[in-house]
Queue: 2 jobs
Job 1
Amino acid sequence: MGELIRMSHISKSYGRVQALDDVSLTVNESEIVGLLGDNGAGKSTLIKVLSGAVPLTSGDIFIRGTKVTLRGTTDAISQGIETIYQDSALVTQLSIARNLFLGREPLTGSKLFNRMDRAKMDAVARDLLKRVGITKNIPPGTPIGSLSGGERQAVAIARAMYFDSDLIILDEPTNNLGVAETQGVLRFVRGARDSGHSCIFIAHNIHHVFQVVDRIVVMRRGKVVADDIDPRTSTIEQVERVITGMDEMH
Ligand SMILES: Nc1ncnc2c1ncn2[C@@H]1O[C@H](COP(=O)(O)OP(=O)(O)OP(=O)(O)O)[C@@H](O)[C@H]1O
Ligand SMILES: [Mg+2]
């Protein structure tokens, strides 16, 4: 299993708030990493740095051993890093099909007089929705604004699948989701590993994390306090003690 991502000695301050304090994190190929920590621990900040959404104050990021500079989210996406938030970067007025291809639309016609290949976009959208577990027949022309939270999530996941991102980051993707939708997201994360993708999965529900990840990393107050917890040999109670800092008490 080769190393896909290495974040090395990353610090990030927002004015006087030090959100990240010398954080290092690696993600290997085909590995699902669960990132846990209490509110304000720095989880979202860490993945925002990795997804190019916020600049780091100091530290380095390597992708497959090569140092990269991420100036924005498009830089990260072009490097194969796709991030999915609960209300991800979907455009609510546009259709499912348009959102899937946003900025990467397939074209048809001659070079000079080309236009978006809507038939292809619709066909791909139909197929992808099925693959991410949406069994209800939702037409690809449906605007995102009229979908449920879980269905939107599925569209964002479908996009990451179609463009074959190496690393898919999910920041609390199961928040506000129903039981069936949550199971769909968890199934997707498991499937991502089987198809050779890597994931960083952030969730407050430790049970969900235990169900799908290979390794657990815990952050507390801007630092990584554990980076090699094996969910198969640890208990939820043990991990909770690491999250709250109770493990350091006597
Ligand atoms: N844009 C910002 N400006 C100022 N401070 C910020 C900003 N974003 C985050 N912070 C601060 O950085 C720290 C880490 O926040 P972060 O959102 O990374 O935590 P988190 O682990 O994702 O928490 P949660 O589980 O609640 O989502 C917090 O103290 C937070 O208040
Ligand atoms: Mg967060």
Job 2
Amino acid sequence: MDAGEKNDERYMRLALEEAELAAAEGEVPIGAAVVCDGRVVARAHNRRETDADPSAHAEFSAMVAAARELGRWRLTGCTVYVTLEPCLMCAGLMVNARVDRCVYGAADPKGGALGTLYDVSHDPRLNHEFEVTPGVLADEAAELLRAFFRARRDARRAARAAAGGPPGECE
Ligand SMILES: [Zn+2]
């Protein structure tokens, strides 16, 4: 593993920590970090339910926070680390923010816009292209998501059983 790959894993660990914070808040566990010239300028996690905001995706919020921190809308020199492949909205913001690179963990077959369903990073019709490194700590990111959805299914099943069970059965 070279120094670049080691750094990618180190920063992806921060994004995974953010994903765990999301899970603790009952949010789908997706986390992100923005690194500019070797400095972590923003971290964020998914807060769609908490904020009742369809744009509150981890990497979207992290990019907005990074721009605020840097005092510029252009995120030139920045790499966005995110645990799940970005959707169209977030990949679109990466184009608009002129990011240098995106490193993501698990691919998203249901909405991935950096190589899976679409590839917004290298579309010559758009005015910016950026580098993408997929699959960094992908297993850990995917396992967080699987565990979250498994727990949610179990909780719903338990709630249904409790609602339908005979009175007094519930502790
Ligand atoms: Zn998104």
